[in-house]
Write a structure and sequence with these properties.
single chain, alpha/beta, seven-stranded mixed β-sheet, Rossmann fold, 7 strands, about 210 residues
């Protein structure tokens, strides 16, 4: 519970601003590429949805999307933006690890920064367990997490990037999951200080039967 409180306080403060890197209209290129290749399907859960950048982009393309974020400020902005677009979609303020009510419901989960924001191993295992409960057998998580390779780069020294190794992702998703693909590549990442190069993990993780 202490971790949940700390996370919520951090993200409420972050989303007191309306000019975060998550407030832009253009979709992340990774998400747009997944959509173009037909990898996104069915009912979609956007974890750590923030002010709705990814959720609203996909909903405008006709997908059934639900967004969850720990911040009231973020969820309020996402809901208002969706309403302005005339979209009928649901947003929930919750810590996704503690969220209930959608068991076995989702076909696709998009995580563009939720997992790597969790504070410790226990939180990451709880997160994977929660996703397993929400998702149908055979459904897929598309996860992007910032890599610990950035710790070795001077270019990232002025930015407190999260830092996860491949083994951290594999450990959290070891029970009830198949990691079908894990790619490590450097991308242009939008930050408060402009666009910076950052190494990220891109994972495709399928839910196995109970």
């Amino acid at each position: 519970m202490e971790e949940s409180v700390r996370l919520r306080e951090y993200w409420e403060k972050e989303y007191e601003r309306t000019d975060t890197p998550f407030d832009i209209e253009v979709p992340d290129e990774w998400i747009a590429d997944l959509e173009r290749r037909g990898r996104i399907r069915g009912k979609i859960l956007d974890t750590g949805c923030g002010p709705g950048r990814t959720s609203i982009y996909l909903a405008k393309l006709g997908y059934d999307v639900t967004g969850v974020d720990i911040s009231d400020n973020a969820i309020g902005r996402a809901a208002r933006r969706a309403a302005l677009e005339g979209l009928r979609m649901e947003f929930f303020q919750a810590n996704v690890c503690e969220w209930h009510g959608h068991d076995g419901y989702f076909d696709t989960v998009i995580d563009i920064g939720c997992f790597h924001s969790l504070l410790n191993e226990s939180g990451r295992v709880s997160y994977a367990s929660a996703l397993h409960r929400f998702m149908k057998t055979g459904s897929v998580v598309y996860l992007r997490a910032i890599s610990d390779a950035n710790l070795r780069k001077e270019a990232a020294s002025d930015r407190a990037f999260p830092a996860l190794g491949e083994e951290t992702i594999r450990a959290a998703f070891s029970a009830g999951w198949e990691i079908r693909d894990m790619e490590h590549r450097e991308i242009d990442l939008l930050t408060d200080n402009g666009c910076k190069k950052a190494w990220c993990w891109f994972a495709e993780i399928q839910r196995e039967p109970n």
